[in-house]
Amino acid sequence: KAGVTQTPRYLIKTRGQQVTLSCSPISGHRSVSWYQQTPGQGLQFLFEYFSETQRNKGNFPGRFSGRQFSNSRSEMNVSTLELGDSALYLCASSLAGEAIYEQYFGPGTRLTVT
Amino acid sequence: AQTVTQSQPEMSVQEAETVTLSCTYDTSESNYYLFWYKQPPSRQMILVIRQEAYKQQNATENRFSVNFQKAAKSFSLKISDSQLGDTAMYFCAFMKPNTGNQFYFGTGTSLTVIP
């Protein structure tokens, strides 16, 4: 079974631009979560989607948004990029809506904002 | 809000030796889950071990075991017979049920296994 895939793997953007990252969960998984990973802050929860509905959102500004499609693929969008948005963005999928079903992480998208 | 603290940014251990990684958390909840995740260099994060707070018995997975002290809000990871492949960042994480898979992660401990 294919794992969680994220595209693109690397991205360089300029301040003020916007960016869209994509996550394809493991087949059959309906829950997709997004995290921002930085050396100083560790992993911080962005949001989680389950069956196309956002169920929970972390403490990030409205510039960060996401969506989930009927095939469970998810995208996150960051508008008006700032230097501080440079990070590794990870998505994780799980079979159902509870963490007692193991979360599987993707390799991440490394975003660099210049 | 829940907080997870890993007070050891970096650790090292000799191959075949035992090492313990510390994690403390703060919560007012009585029912929750705790996890240790491993992130090898340039590789995907994987689950090492998980613990349900209502279970008193400490979880074990082969060479990995935890010391869960609920009253002290402590959740340490013990790695026995350390192997070179154990070199990785280790993250402690907390999750409340029915919160849409919202995990709270610590800042991680970078473990290096020395041959």
Keywords:
heterodimer, A: 114 residues, seven-stranded mixed sheet, four-stranded antiparallel sheet, globular, B: 115 residues, 12 strands
Strand count of chain B: 12
Q: Count of helices of chain B?
A: 0
3D shape of chain B = globular
Mean pLDDT score of chain B: 93
Task: Write the SSE topology.
The complex is a heterodimer of chains A (about 110) and B (about 120).
Chain A (H helix, E strand, L loop, with lengths): L4 E3 L2 E4 L5 E6 L6 E8 L3 E9 L2 E5 L6 E5 L5 E5 L8 E8 L9 E2 L3 E5 L1
Parallel strand pairs in A: 2-11
Antiparallel strand pairs in A: 1-3, 3-8, 4-5, 4-9, 5-6, 7-8, 9-10, 9-11
Chain B lengths: L2 E3 L4 E5 L4 E3 L2 E3 L6 E7 L6 E7 L7 E2 L2 E6 L4 E6 L8 E8 L7 E3 L3 E6 L1
Parallel strand pairs in B: 2-12
Antiparallel strand pairs in B: 1-4, 3-9, 5-6, 5-10, 7-8, 8-9, 10-11, 10-12
Write a structural description:
The complex is a heterodimer of chains A (114) and B (115). With 114 residues, chain A is mostly beta strands. Helices cover 0% and strands 53% of the residues of chain A. Chain A is built from no helices and eleven strands. Chain A starts with a strand and ends with a strand. With 115 residues, chain B is an all-beta fold. Chain B is 0% helix and 51% strand. Chain B has no helices and twelve strands. In chain B, the strands form three sheets. In chain B, strands 2, 5, 6, 10, 11 and 12 form a six-stranded mixed β-sheet that branches. Chain B has a four-stranded antiparallel β-sheet with strand order 3-9-8-7, with no helix packed on it. Chain B is globular. The model of chain B has no long low-confidence stretch (mean pLDDT 93).
